[in-house]
Automatic annotation (TrEMBL):
Transmembrane segments: 45-70, 229-250
Protein name: ABC transporter permease
Organismal lineage: Bacteria, Pseudomonadati, Pseudomonadota, Alphaproteobacteria, Rhodobacterales
Location relative to the cell: Cell inner membrane; Cell membrane
Family per similarity comment: Belongs to the binding-protein-dependent transport system permease family. HisMQ subfamily.
Domain of life of the source: Bacteria
Species: Roseovarius aquimarinus
Amino acid sequence: MDMIRAMLIPRRLVMLGLFAAFVAWCAVSMDWSWLPRYTPLILDGLWATIWILAVSIILGFMLAVPLGLAQAIGPWYLSAPARAFCTIIRGTPLLLQIWLLYYGLGSLFPQFPAIRNSELWPYLRQAWPYAVLSLTLSYAGYEGEVMRGAFASVQKGQIEAARAFGMPRHKIFFRIWLPQAFRSAMPTLGGETILQLKATPLVATITIVELYAVASRVRQDTFIVYEPLLLLAAGYLLIAGVITLAFRWIEGRGPRMSR
């Protein structure tokens, strides 16, 4: 009900009307005859974008938690490497990181017979492991800094009180420290996830066929420029909208979950 009331605000109704008019104009005045032929390829590209995004943010967040924790309370021999990793990742272009892993590490592996003869070699010869690894490290580098601030923002009195009651360290971390740090980092995590989505087209440079690569192929095959790009933009807007709604839903459940 609240969502319906929010949508009935006059300015939002005007925006929806303008958007509907633009969509209708695009559907009528533009050439979409190529769409049925490339629909299977578009769906494959959409799926590739979604699974690369999902895997990289899950693995990246799992790596960001210890990176943030090491910077927040770790000794110097843990905090210094974590800080250096986040600084390097945040200070270098993602495209450079992708190329270093794919063309650098990927060309180094064939020189080792043990790797070429292993069961992992069929996977290491493909591009997607390097794409997932580079996006994972990129997400971890940014979110490691976010989690550092989130861990530091949790009141120390709560942790000291839990220790006074004899709660073990792992329970303090998983029941008190991590949930509160996660809730405080939620808005930033949502924004970084959308930025991660917009970074996925870079993996097309190492032959990954995702949404951007599909749009480029349609443009090269048909010499139609604007229609594939508009469809590409609509796909990214759809995924970004789902991500935004998901994070808002999680944020809305935060107070209930804390009780």
